[in-house]
Amino acid sequence: MNPIIIIANIVLLYEKIEGYLNSLKTNRTQCYRLAVRLQIVVDILRNLKNPENKGAIFLDALNDLERRMRQALELVQLFTDAAWYQKALRAKWYQRQFDEINGFLAQSIQQLDLGVNVQQLMDREQDRKDQAADFEEVQKKQDEILRLSEEEFAQVKTKQIEQAEQQKIMRLQLGAVHCVLAELSQKLAEFKSISGTAVATKVPELIDARFRLGYHEITFQKVLAEGELGTIYLGTWNGQTVAIKALEGVLSDEDHAQFMREVQVMSHLQHAAIIQFYGASLDRGRYCLVMEYAENESLRKVLHEAKTILTPEHKHAIALEVAQGLSYLHSQGVVHCNLDSGNVLLDKDWHAKLSDFGLSKTSFRSVRTVKQSHAVIAGMAPELFEGRDKITPLSDVYSYGVLLWELMTGKVPYAAFADRPTDLVEQVKMSKLEAIPADIPEVYANIIRNTWQSEPAHRMPLTKIIEELSRYVPRPITPPEVIYEKGCDEEQKGHLEAARKFYERAAEKGFAKALTNLGFFYLKGDGGCAQDKKRAFQLWSEAATKNHARAQFNLGMMFEYGDGIDKDLEKAREYYVKAAANGHPKALERLGHLDMMGVQSIRTHPTMQNKL
């Protein structure tokens, strides 16, 4: 092959290697060193005159160099992908890879006879230092590597769970097929039987015939949740998407009674704030309940797991709809007995729907067994601990107050007692209730106070709650960025105390820029607050966790100079790196100052200069 073409290929390979340098996640120092060496050789080859006249040995050496360049490219690429942390864990193995490639490159360069001092270019002592630097970087990133590895393991476990769920769904579908075949066999037997000789067994109608579904009519798609009494699936029935509550196997008498109670209760209910009931399969061993699918799942998940933030208007609508649904239940002779945020479902338009009536106490004569209440302790009225005969609609009203507190605060009720159920029971029985935050609008605070009365008769009735909520129009919450901008305006006018108050309001909502600006006020003692560098450090630390570059840079300065905290250059470097990654204009300068001695020898490469 023409050496000019080979040189062109070598240049192209080098440019690809250089292009990957900015995306390196690990082994940066060794990759940069490799790039520096290749750049020197490539620059010489670019300027080489009449390479076609160099002879066969030169041509063989060029071919060998091209092959080694491809190996170098493959190695550098390894450290840019999403699984870089796996490569970091194999740092010792890749150390040998770098050694081999550097050795082969030295041979190729020597054979090319380009006038390069190979021994000086391939400085083995420098290679050892570079490897040590990369090992140190891995050590500093060990927390991140652990986190990413745990996430990977969780994903693998999720896939395994999904496979198990698919097998479970396939068993359900196969069961439906068996069910159809059994029905066909039964019909065939009936057709063949001689009139008068067949003995019919009369089965009592537990629910209206129009709600009785054939198991084979239901299609299961995926698991939505595992419940205390069965599994919730997403599926289809009659051409529409539905939620399916399925119970498999042989049920205990108690579980069967609870399931039948839920079916019977739901079959009598029809209201916009109650999850719609479509029907149930009562085939032995294949019990399931088919109902409306709520796309946004439970209120609990939205409040504590999802990233969606409910607006004041949404929260108000949910509070009103739950109260209306509860009032309807009571008008139908049903006490929910298990009202909490996990049993309030939200449809695609965020409308609230009450669900899970397995523990409900009813006045329907067909319900003959009543199971002991297993409602979440935090939402239980004090009288429920005295026995089921104490349950009244006012018990639900108390639970509504707990739900309203959770909705308005976004916090888990009695979270401090999560692992101490016995202590929580005593807490509720003694009416030691959660504090009602001052920033909750008074209409909600008043309802919470008056539904948490220990004496049921003193609790606010639902009619009054609905009246109060219907009259109230929630005020939109001022976004923290707007409050922050007002603080900036006041600060520019020289009104520092007013500015500080705006920053404090925005900082309470976790707004990073406000946290950072407020930190300066405490650092200097401006705006009517005493100088408090530790408080400034706390505020900047909180803002830094939100990737705010200015806060990260400020922490770097505090650590570098020991201003208000102990001097720690390693910590300073860590925060300067974060600030640089988030675009702070001066972070690179400070980082360069700290790193001058350690990285000076590899600053000749232009890409490295950009990184630093």
Would you mind describing this structure in some detail?
With 612 residues, the protein is an alpha+beta fold. It has 23 helices and nine strands. Strand 4 and strand 5 form a beta hairpin. The protein starts with a helix and ends with a helix. The strands form three sheets. It has a five-stranded antiparallel beta sheet. The protein has helices at 3-20, 28-46, 56-78, 84-89, 91-112, 118-121, 124-140, 142-192, 253-267, 299-304, 312-331, 393-409, 421-429, 442-451, 462-471, 480-492, 496-508, 512-524, 533-544, 549-561, 569-581, 587-599, 606-611; strands at residues 218-227, 230-237, 240-248, 277-283, 286-292, 334-335, 344-346, 352-354, 361-362. The chain has four domains: 3-140, no CATH class; 162-194 and 203-293, Phosphorylase Kinase, domain 1, CATH 3.30.200; 299-477, Transferase(Phosphotransferase), domain 1, CATH 1.10.510; 480-611, Tetratricopeptide repeat domain (Serine Threonine Protein Phosphatase 5, Tetratricopeptide repeat). The longest helix is centred in the N-terminal third of the chain and has 51 residues, at 142-192.
